[in-house]
Amino acid sequence: MASQLNTEKGARRMDRPIITVQQYILQEQQHFPGVSGEFSWLLSGITLATKMIQAKVRRAGLTDILGSDAQVNVQGEIQQKLDIYANNALLHCLGVRDSVGVLASEENDEPIALRTSGRAKYAIVFDPLDGSSNIDVNVSVGTIFSILRRSEASMAEGGDPLEGLLQPGNKQIAAGYVVYGSSTILVYTTGRGVHGFTLDPSIGAYVLSHEHIKMPSKGKYYSINEAYRDDFPAHYGKYIDELRRQKYASRYVGSLVADFHRTLLKGGVFLYPPTADHPNGKLRLLYEANPMAFIAEQAGGAAHNGTTRILDLQPKSIHERTPLVLGSREEMARFAECRPT
Ligand code: AHG
Ligand code: MN
Ligand code: MN
């Protein structure tokens, strides 16, 4: 069905019908018996917050939103003003969704228990602004989120609202990210494939632009911060040398969301190995590795911590870090061959 849009210059065929992310979610929900509109209402909290964030990102040089706030977060990292703005936007927009019981953010030391009511079925963990070091130099940044169902015990009267937050990634209900790049794109999965929506500023809506994204089985890029190469376990260096011999090119943005989005669409491999500064890896398991691993696998790729599937790791703390290797099937198989037995 291609709707006609009549203008003064006569009929102009639209290339494709406009399907917003809300419409798409509602259509998808018909496949989930018993799931009411609460998921689409919850997702609308995320899309609203990311529209607020992207409006700030797009005007960063014109408003006093650049630079650091000189606060240090739980990660020991200087918070950028946009980190704090993005965090507040998500806390506000999700805090008013009564299906959300708990929020956990990279920027908050502790999780935030919002409500214990029986309706508050979901916990959301998020990285409000990923790639903060790139904000001031106009390089793509992003937002990453993961949605979990809360445990019965945490919802029981008098239960600990934070109980059961530390679930392995294979329990995620949904995961996604927004990359604030040359365009603003939302990519998410609910376990039924991976779909992308581009923000159309002329109508202020995320419009379906990449349905059923599949990661190519092989790419031509590898993505790693080679400055730390001397710290990597030896087999990582061996692996990279093998890829270079096969004429792979190197691409590294320094924003996980941007490096992941390219790997999702073009294939290849992204690695953040253990380093001297981060012997357990730098990336956070709950709100960086898990959501990206869920999306990678749903698109036909794979993700592990160097040895174990990311989605099978049992988190021990909210801000736990992990090494991360993710990408196309062929590159991931090559990595396994380089791994010491
Ligand atoms: P964040 O800005 O949320 O702290 O995340 C930054 C992460 C991730 O986006 C990126 O892949 C990685 O840091 C880059 O680290 P290096 O600068 O050490 O390469
Ligand atoms: Mn991050
Ligand atoms: Mn961040």
Using brief descriptors, characterize the structure shown.
341 residues; alpha+beta; Fructose-1,6-Bisphosphatase, Chain A, domain 1; 2 domains; 8 helices; disordered N terminus; binds manganese (II) ion
CATH class of the largest domain: Alpha Beta
**Helical residues, percent:** 25-40%
> Can you tell me the residue ranges where pLDDT is under 50 for at least 5 consecutive residues?
1-13
Query: How many β-strand stretches?
Result: 19
Could you name the CATH homologous superfamily of the largest domain? Fructose-1,6-Bisphosphatase, subunit A, domain 1
Mean pLDDT: 90
Name the CATH architecture of the largest domain.
Answer: 2-Layer Sandwich
Small molecules bound: 2,5-anhydro-1,6-di-O-phosphono-D-glucitol, manganese (II) ion
Task: Give Rg in angstroms.
Answer: 20 Å
Name the helix and strand elements from N-terminus to C-terminus, one letter apiece: EEHHEEHEEEEHEEEEEHEHEEHEEEH
Explain the overall architecture.
With 341 residues, the chain is an alpha+beta fold. The protein has two domains: 13-210, Fructose-1,6-Bisphosphatase, Chain A, domain 1 (2-Layer Sandwich); 221-338, D-Maltodextrin-Binding Protein, domain 2. The chain is 28% helix and 26% strand. The protein has helices spanning 21-29, 38-58, 81-95, 152-155, 234-245, 256-266, 285-298, 329-338; strands at residues 4-7, 10-13, 68-72, 78-80, 100-105, 112-113, 122-130, 141-149, 174-180, 184-189, 194-200, 205-210, 221-223, 249-250, 269-272, 283-284, 302-304, 321-322, 324-327. The strands form five sheets. The chain has an eight-stranded mixed sheet with strand order 6-5-7-8-9-10-11-12, sandwiched between helices. A five-stranded mixed sheet has the order 14-13-15-19-17, with helices on both faces. Strand 13 (221-223), helix 5 (234-245) and strand 14 form a beta-alpha-beta unit. Helix 2 runs antiparallel to helix 3. The longest helix has 21 residues, at 38-58. One manganese (II) ion binds at residues 127, 130, 256, 288.
